[in-house]
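Narrative of activities, Objective 1.

The group set out to show that a structural description can be obtained from nothing but a protein's sequence at a throughput compatible with the screening campaign. Below is one input-output pair from the validation batch, recorded exactly as produced.
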Amino acid sequence: MAKVSVYNMEGKEVGKIDLNDAVFGVEINEHLVHLAVVQQLANNRQGTQKAKTRSEVSGGGRKPWRQKGTGHARQGSTRAPQWTGGGVVFAPVPRDYSFKLNKKEKRAALKSALTSKVNDNKLIVVDELKFDEIKTKKFQTVMNNLNVAKGLVVLAENDEKVVLSARNIPTVQTTLTGTLNVYDVMKAGTVVLTKDAVTKIEEVYA
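Output recorded for this entry:
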């Protein structure tokens, strides 16, 4: 089992914790991680883009000039793709870009992403994150104490004071263990987990 340090909000080491190898020490599957990221981005696409083909552009019903004898190349319509104001050749139409991944694939991808953060020493465990008021400055101080410039903070339970304190920091994102995903983990420079979040993740994914 990987053993990592546990820090408090002042950035001081207060203990050690053993991470379950079934979650934080698996063999990394880069292909599944890539698929999971592509799936999330694809599922977020609106797919509402639309352009008109030559059959949908108004006008162009009359042949611009006769077939032979003008010296011009033959043309059948002013709305053909090579004309200004003409239609688009393979025009995009509204479509659904989403696709599915198996539950096992999703879990394996998340485990691989978390393992990669452990291997790169980009995973920090804190004993707790508690604030008595909503204060962005205090949250930024905690991030500075932990030497986290760009991070994903994972909480076991929704704590409004913590979430709202972090909301205005552009380089920090908060999430819950239930909504943790591969894209956010890979995008974050450092993943910050509370001890409770580590326990909850291991319960679900081990």
